[in-house]
Specification:
single chain, mainly beta, 6-stranded mixed β-sheet, flat, disordered N terminus
């Protein structure tokens, strides 16, 4: 306590937070009673310094404050070879090391979680840097034009790479992603002209950022990838081979525009549309396989594909084609290319716009034919089928057409399935809610291109309300919610005890008020015991039945033979129920307790 008072006095002396403190060449800003942020390094302009070792603490008026932050542009344009940061640093501001042209080495403290925007932008001599485990995000332009970098191993904790984060790193040859990613943003690795190898060791949802990587030859995209953004590989002129996983459901415009060495591409069945300029100027593209889910082909998607001579279309229905006027390379394709379509579908293609122009159309058994199932999933869970797990973020599943398919609902801990519905194109809908058993349901047979709607509700928690007079009432309450109720005893009665899951909460209530339970996470029991207001021992009906207590139990007298005597604990739990056999009937009970005894219409509270 005394230390806190001293620090509070110190900060008052220093004009509280925000005060600047200078020690040697370093300028700090006080950010808390125990910490400072380094905001400026006062090196003489043009003066070379081989190494800067930042102190872990600074003395301010005889008090030690830790250096926990590096401020924005703190080291900007300094001519220094290496910088050693103390382990106490947890945050670094944007553009902190921007344009440090001589900088070759910086150690990054283990507590960092993000590399901020422009942090090392223009550090052209930086040749190697290790990101600490725990880094989740690399900001926009963080390593832009770091020409000394040749390879980069990203920690498994990384989830996001920002726009232009590594763009223009002209000597970067190899990058490895060691964990799942949420997104690589626009032009993240654009113009890395020596980049040859990209390795994904985890799933990724959205991919972008490799435009104009002119040395990139082969890319294997990871399973789980859903969206390939516009222009991802645009002008990757040396790209010869690309593997696209079945999970991809969307490709943007110009993804392979200008990939003049690309020879063969297989498009996934989950992709419903071939966007504009997708393969424009892919002059070496020879073979193209179109997945069965494709519905349409956009403007100029195949323009410039002068070598395309083998096209396999797995679609039962011929996809539409946007262009009406065809350049010479498309006219040549009509004359020379082989078009392969599913069995018994040649006639449909010979009648369809665009496809009818092909001179060489053959049929082929395409094996299992798949259909798109588009799950529309509400908040509170996901739905799975095979390798696909899709939640509220959306996605597409491939289901064997004409066969039955079993889906599994995956509600979050605090939710449960509410309803399940499949909507058929131009054919109404079917409700499967009552067919969900153990969170599984089966569609048999699968429709063509149906849309699955799944909604989740708050999970219910059972609540037993036990009362000594009225019996038991069971309610279900939404999980993680509290229950509001009101106790209304009959006239002349009051609550003797109230317990919630065995905990006595009698002192928390006032007669006739509403009571809120704690948050309900599991099946719960509320027990209510009543007593008469006048006395704890009272005959309701005026009979002469008497109940007396002694060390070993109770004696019931003047009750008719065969009359049932019920004994409850104070929280309403029945522990004895016997029929009277004698004029004075003894019932053994444990001493030191309070009991509620009920004989016919008479209820008595007795302390042993």
């Amino acid at each position: 306590m005394r230390a806190n008072i001293i620090l509070a006095m110190l900060l008052t002396t220093l004009c509280i937070y925000g005060a600047d403190v200078k020690e040697d060449i370093y300028e700090y800003n006080i950010t808390s009673p125990t910490s400072v942020t380094l905001v400026k390094v006062d090196l003489e302009w043009g003066k070379d310094t081989t190494k800067l070792e930042i102190p872990a603490s600074v003395m301010v008026q005889n008090h030690v404050l830790s250096v926990t932050g590096i401020g924005q542009t703190a080291f900007e344009s300094l001519l220094v070879d290496s910088i050693i940061l103390p382990p106490s640093v947890t945050t670094i501001g944007g553009w902190a090391f921007q344009n440090c042209n001589k900088l070759t080495y910086v150690n990054l403290p283990a507590m960092l979680e993000q590399i901020p925007q422009g942090c090392f932008s223009g550090c052209i001599s930086l040749s190697k840097i290790k990101l600490p485990d725990g880094i989740s995000k690399i900001g926009n332009e963080a390593f832009q034009r770091c020409n000394g970098l040749t390879d980069f191993d990203f920690p498994a904790t990384l989830r996001e790479v920002g726009t232009n984060a590594f763009s223009g790193c002209q000597n970067l040859e190899r990058i490895v992603f060691n964990g799942p990613l949420d997104k690589i943003w626009y032009d993240a690795f654009a113009w890395c002209t020596k980049l040859k190898e990209v390795e994904f060791n985890g799933a990724i949802r959205n991919l972008n950022g490799f435009a104009s990587c002119t040395s990139l030859e082969k890319v294997v995209l990871p399973e789980g990838l859903q969206t390939i953004e516009s222009g991802v590989f645009k002008n990757c002129t040396n790209l010869k081979e690309i593997t696209i996983p079945l999970t991809v459901r969307e490709m943007g415009q110009s993804v392979f525009d200008g990939c003049s060495s690309l020879k063969e591409v297989v498009l996934p069945a989950a992709m419903p549309y071939m966007q504009h300029w997708l393969f424009q100027n892919c002059t070496s593209l020879e073979r193209l396989t179109i997945g069965e889910g494709l519905k349409g082909i956009g403007t100029n998607a195949l323009n410039g594909c002068s070598s395309l001579r083998h096209i396999v279309v797995r679609c039962q229905q011929p996809p539409s084609y946007s262009d009406k006027a065809f350049p010479q390379e498309i006219l040549d394709m009509f004359e020379q290319a082989e078009l392969v379509v599913p069995e018994d579908r040649k006639g449909a293609y010979q009648k369809a716009d665009f496809w009818k122009n092909f001179k060489h159309i053959t049929e082929q058994d395409m094996g299992t034919c798949y259909r798109n199932m588009l799950p529309n999933v509400g908040e509170g869970g996901a739905v799975s089928y095979g390798q696909w797990i899709i939640g509220q973020e959306g996605g597409c599943m491939l289901i064997p057409y004409g066969e039955k398919a079993t889906f599994t609902l995956l509600p979050d801990e605090d939710h449960a399935p509410d309803y399940v519905e499949v909507r058929y194109p131009n054919n109404g809908y079917h409700n499967y809610s009552r067919k969900v058993v153990d969170n599984r349901f089966t569609i048999d047979p699968m429709p063509e291109n149906g849309e699955l709607y799944v909604r989740f509700a708050d999970a219910l928690v059972d609540v037993d309300i036990v009362q000594t007079e009225q019996g038991t009432v069971m309610l279900s309450v939404a999980k993680n919610h509290s229950l509001r109720y009101q106790i209304l005893p009959d006239e002349g009665w009051r609550v003797n005890s109230l317990t919630f899951n065995g905990e006595d909460i009698t002192d928390q209530i006032q007669q006739g008020t509403y009571i809120d339970t704690p948050v309900l996470r599991e099946k719960s029991t509320i027990r209510i015991a009543y007593e008469q207001i006048e006395t704890g021992v009272k005959a309701v009906d005026g009979s002469k039945v008497r109940v007396l207590g002694y060390d070993g139990g109770i004696v019931v007298s003047q009750a008719p033979a065969g009359q049932t005597v019920s004994v409850y604990t104070l929280d309403g739990r029945l522990i004895r129920s016997v029929a009277i056999k004698h004029a004075q009937h003894t019932i053994p009970l444990t001493a030191g307790q309070v009991y509620i005894v009920k004989v016919a219409e008479k209820t008595i509270k007795i302390r042993m």
